[in-house]
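Data deposition worksheet. Section B asks for the primary sequence of the deposited chain exactly as it was used as input, without tags or linkers unless they were present during the calculation. Section C holds the resulting structure in token form. Section D is free text for depositor observations; keep each observation to a single sentence. Incomplete worksheets are returned to the depositor.
Section A, Depositor: J.P.
Section B:
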Amino acid sequence: VDHQKADWVSIHKRICQLLIPVRTSLPFVCEEQRKHGVEQLVKRQKYIIDVTSSTAQKFILDGEHEKAIPAALHALRFSTEVYGSSSVQLVPAYLLLAEAYIGVGHLLQAAKYVSQAQWIALRTPDCSVAIQHRLHRSLGLLCAAEGNFEQALYHLANDIYLASSTFGLKSIETSGGCFHMANIFFRQNKMDIANSLYAEV
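Section C:
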């Protein structure tokens, strides 16, 4: 019951009406109708992925990590249905789940999701730089949560480099990595470096 309530508050009330046409199978008279029906189904599923992903991201940014989990799970489920279980398109959903679980302190579960994302990225030769930078950010956050600051700084440095090469040094995407790196220097009591990074953000 608690899980149903959490799911409803997090995401289900937002996508409930969207699920009806996705879960209802329609009879097709001809091949053209079947093809059109499949196209419409995929379009609806992709829209649900966008809604659930952005909702999970918003909860994470608001610090409501527990509420982000059901939304991120829906994003993963629909991404798997649309793209298959080993597609690079699943990486963003895995990383959302990892960040949500880091936020609630379930580091073992977070590590499993990060590992899954990393495995898919490594076996995808043309994995985009945008996905690689997000992967390094999640690895950095996980290492920081585990208290492994040196490894966290290594991953966040990669995050900043990849984000700046894609989006530019002054982009909001790059500033996220700088902010997380500043937090680590703050925790290490290296205030000069932390403050210069906060000022950059």
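Section D:
The two ends are 42 Å apart (CA to CA).
The mean pLDDT is 87.
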